[in-house]
Design brief:
By secondary structure, the protein is an alpha+beta fold. It has helices at residues 72-76, 200-206, 251-264, 271-278, 281-297, 301-305, and strands at 2-15, 33-42, 48-55, 63-71, 82-87, 100-108, 115-124, 137-143, 146-149, 160-168, 177-183, 191-198, 208-214, 232-244. It folds into three domains: 2-92 and 223-241, Sandwich (Immunoglobulin-like), CATH 2.60.40; 100-214, C2 domain (Immunoglobulin-like), CATH 2.60.40; 246-305, no CATH class. Strand 3 and strand 4 form a beta hairpin.
Length: 306
Amino acid sequence: MAKRSSLYIRIVEGKNLPAKDMTATVWKTLCPFWGEEYQVHLPPTFHAVAFYVMDEDALSRDDVIGKVCLTRDTIASHPKGFSGWAHLTEVDPDEEVQGEIHLRLEVWPGARACRLRCSVLEARDLAPKDRNGTSDPFVRVRYKGRTRETSIVKKSCYPRWNETFEFELQEGAMEALCVEAWDWDLVSRNDFLGKVVIDVQRLRVVQQEEGWFRLQPDQSKSRRHDEGNLGSLQLEVRLRDETVLPSSYYQPLVHLLCHEVKLGMQGPGQLIPLIEETTSTECRQDVATNLLKLFLGQGLAKDFLD
């Protein structure tokens, strides 16, 4: 059984956007209208979806005006879809994190003191920070003033390291273990990709832990509150979760539908009236699209359309 999440997005318009460079903007407006629709397939484990408003520049890099971020819970709380105006917020590079890191953590007694072993295995879905759409990630592990770093993996958002670091644990120490992911840059400063903070006291109790940890932004930085000052974006977003069962579960329905199409070649069938009777206007397009895919696979698409 497989699961898939689909987002149906309509980006309607913006208003009261701040002027970045009017002469470089094609439409020369701070209240643009788009009316564009998209369908995006996402993994069922996605946490949020973000919309970035950019100011296009012909010669230099495009300016980021702001963003709207909708969490999965926010979208899912509107069964018929989220629709409305949302304030743009400032884009902080250190908050633009995504992805997860795979760690193996162990605590075991040593000759003089307990030892903490942190194995950095791999990461997935890291934020692309370079112009080529990838990053050059490495991991920095910090504990009680000591810092260790992994090797750099070039041009990858799904790096593998399989590197292990050890630290001495002092009795009663309350400091946490900090695991940070960075994008290495040769000329400019390294870009922050996110971090995970491990409670060492809890780790002492469980002795070992392994799993995927979601990367988090740097919460220690002070934040500006520009919400409402950067304009607004009108969106219509609808989430649909699909569960795909093994193909054998669908065979009785497939045979029934194919039989109906073949009968329809000899006279008026019941399939189209049944679809019109049991579906709403909103979902009829989806039903028709899926039926066409099914009949294409069965070699009956032409008969179905006729």
